[in-house]
Amino acid sequence: MPDPTPPGPTSASTPPPTSPTPIRILLADDHALVRRGVRLILDREPDLEVVAEAGDGAEAIEAARSQEIDLAVLDIAMPRLTGLQATRELVALKPGLRILMLTMHDNEQYLFQALKAGACGYVLKSVADRDLVAACRAAMRNEPFLYPGAVTALIRNYLDRVRHGEEDPDQLLTPREEEVLKLVAEGHSSKEIAEILFISVKTVHRHRANLLQKLGLHDRLELTRYAIRAGLIEP
């Protein structure tokens, strides 16, 4: 007799139904025992595969140069080059590479430095068996992964900056920048935007450069995605 109980929702750690090509992972930690344990966690998942290991940040960079990898999992405290230093180098070397920090340090300063360096997630070793697999999959979906205490730290830091006037929550972009962003996202050329807003093409270019810098974006496509998320245009 078939089981009448319907299947439950897929958990964050459940692999996708089909994953023909496993996510290729570089694992860097200066303790071989830690690497072995982390590798066991990752390699038992069908969509994850550790293809390279490194004992420090410099070795991690060399491994990234010589092998095709999709994701780097780096310890923060390592000899020669730390995980933070290696992250900066890897981001410059392979801009599409996703990077997770795996650390024993529940430390706001390290967290902010890791995110600023280019990491997309921060996982504590103490709960790696619970969080690391989900963090790897989130990274490959281009989603950030932070443990609950890190989220609290980020919110507290943002609110402190607002209170001290370092952030204006309602005025990240000026009204004119929002207008330019909307028109860029709608596909208008710089010349067309200049005509619509009665400003010079040079001014349009300046606004667009300011938008990219303020929002940490790189091109028109990313500006368009931001405009959709911000509700400035319909998807």
TrEMBL record:
Residues covered by the HTH luxR-type domain: 166-231
UniProt region (Disordered), positions on chain: 1-20
InterPro entries attached to this UniProt entry: CheY-like_superfamily (IPR011006), NreC/VraR/RcsB-like_REC (IPR058245), Sig_transdc_resp-reg_C-effctor (IPR016032), Sig_transdc_resp-reg_receiver (IPR001789), Tscrpt_reg_LuxR_C (IPR000792), WalR-like (IPR039420)
SUPFAM superfamilies: C-terminal effector domain of the bipartite response regulators, CheY-like
4-aspartylphosphate modifications at: 75
Response regulatory domain sequence ranges: 24-140
UniProt organism field: Streptomyces javensis
Keywords: DNA-binding, Phosphoprotein, Transcription, Transcription regulation
Listed Pfam families: GerE (PF00196), Response_reg (PF00072)
Keyword Membrane: no
Protein name per its UniProtKB record: Response regulator transcription factor
